[in-house]
Structure of Adenine deaminase:
Amino acid sequence: TIAKDALRAQPKAELHVHIEGTLEPEMVFELAEKNGIVLDYPDAGTLRQAYNFQDLQSFLNIYYQGVKVLIEADDFFELTYNYLRHAHEDGVVHTEIFFDPQSHTDRGISLAAVFEGINRALAKGQKEFGITSRLIPCFLRHLSAEAAMETLHALLPYRDFFCAVGLDSSEKGNPPSKFSEVFDKARAEGLLTVAHAGEEGPASYIWEALDLLHVARIDHGVGCESDDELCRRLAAEQMPLTVCPLSNIKLAVFDDIKGHNLKRLLDRGLCMTVSSDDPAYFGGYLLDNFIAVQTGLDLTWDEVTELARNSIRASFLSESEKLEWL
Ligand code: HPA
Ligand code: ZN
């Protein structure tokens, strides 16, 4: 096996992390107490024991409960700063962070507070750790296309603070095609696009993300494997897949790490990257995900460095910024 320090030392970009998914149980309780919110669990240990998921939806039900303790800009600051500290410890040099605006605005939290808190942490993280960041607000796909369009309009005054929009939440039954107009509008505004596709959903959702949403990356995308033509296209276009191994195991997308298709897809020439998704819920930050796939799939040093370099290549850094890490 490859030493943890060597994996840590590889410059890595984290391209798929939901900031609300970095909310550790201890912080849930700390913020609940500060904000006067009553929780369904007596303590952090008991809450953590509830992190036993059958599928994506059973996770999302708990994740949206946790989000409710985030009220003030300072809460978003603390959340984001805490994540950046973890990321830095794992050798992450750049991160592209998802957040779910609707899970906050629907509770009466202003986008101003969300952006203010997160941006303050990103600035501090860059100063203190040298870590660069981009933000990617995601539309909740279980809600309507109209709600997503309203959210896009509400986001536009903050246009300078994010580089792309994404699509997350309950995948099955909510195909990318539902959001083609919203994504058209986002691209017309000069935004890049990404979308969760092929996490639990079928390969056809990946085709839709490519052809209808014109995404620059596919989040997860592991469902492509059943479709040879799709795999050939993803390889030919070097379309990055942001794969989250520990997430996939926790949400039973694969039975165990040995059965994960990351290496098989890498062998087929796809542009594979590794991310942590919701590290507070899935049992590990980025380095833990690298260790899990390196040991579980017997990845060579060349394969591990390819994954790390792919993450830099697939990032939304400028070409000159990428060169610093390649
Ligand atoms: N999948 C879909 N939506 C999400 C996830 C995820 O893993 N995490 C937070 N929102
Ligand atoms: Zn995700």
Remarks:
- The domain at 4-314 is CATH 3.20.20.140 (TIM Barrel).
- The chain has one domain: 4-314.
- The first strand starts at residue 12 and ends at 18.
